[in-house]
Specification:
The mean pLDDT is 78. The protein has two domains: 5-35; 45-106. Helices cover 46% and strands 10% of the residues. By secondary structure, it is mainly alpha-helical. It is built from four helices and three strands, in the order H-E-H-H-E-E-H. Strands 1-3-2 form a three-stranded antiparallel sheet.
Length: 107
């Protein structure tokens, strides 16, 4: 019987136990994704809005304006990024600052 890493053994034609567990986990994930409601307009969990509707995080700002986060920090270094609001370690951007930033780009 061939041996695999970590002591897994393989009978003729069988998968190692680790691969079987991985296949089961992937099948469960696929099933959960198929059952998830679609087309209801809900944002995916990664795109959850910030708690304050008047403010957005840097990540949300970058997604809204279709720029990368690294490009945002390049703009910030040049002094061309929108105004920021700091609360402790959190950096937020108001919708008003976003609008002003867009107007400045249009000129």
């Amino acid at each position: 019987m061939p041996r695999y890493r970590r002591g897994y053994t393989k009978a003729a034609g069988d998968k190692p136990a680790a691969l079987t567990m991985l296949d089961d986990a992937m099948a469960l994930r696929d099933e959960m994704l198929r059952e998830a409601p679609r087309g209801n307009g809900a944002a995916p969990p990664s795109a959850a809005p910030s708690r304050n509707p008047m403010l957005m995080t840097v990540d949300e700002f970058c997604r809204n304006n279709r720029i990368s986060i690294s490009h945002y920090y390049i703009l910030k270094k040049k002094g061309e990024a929108p105004r920021e609001i700091r609360s402790g370690k959190r950096v937020m951007i108001s919708h008003e600052a976003e609008s002003d930033w867009r107007r400045a780009l249009e000129k």
